[in-house]
Here is the input.
Amino acid sequence: MHYNLLLAFAMSGGGGEDAGLLGVNIGLAFWTVLTFLLLLLILGKFAWKPILKALDERETNIKSSLEAAERAKEETRKLTDENQKILAQAMEEANKLREESRSQAESIKNDILAEAKKKSDEMLASATHEIEVKKQEALSEIKNQIADISIDIASKILKANVDKEKNKTLIESGLNEIGKN
Here is the structure.
């Protein structure tokens, strides 16, 4: 472009007319406008379309990249929300299972305690009954022994037919015998 301007300046400079510093040199203006229009035509024909096409492609690429980034951001947000929901559900399920396990353990513990109390009560009742039976047997045995000893004492008293002192001695010896048994 500078070359064309210099060429136009050189061609117009030989006319002999001096327009001065503020004057307009028609030849120079003509060649400048002609060079500018020619350059504009060449650029319009060969450069503007590829430049505009490249700019349009770049704009399209930037828009599609921004849209893809926005979609990825939205997808990430959705996945994060979904993960949070899944985590919350898992925590809720874990708490539910823990509570069910605790409830089952409490139920099993109560069943075991009830069974142990039942067996303990049965054993206590059985032992109490057995003690009562043994007590009755012992009392019956004692009564029988007392009766036997009383009969022995009475028969000894009758056989001995002795005085009061002798009776007292026989009764005391019979009572001592009862105390030993």
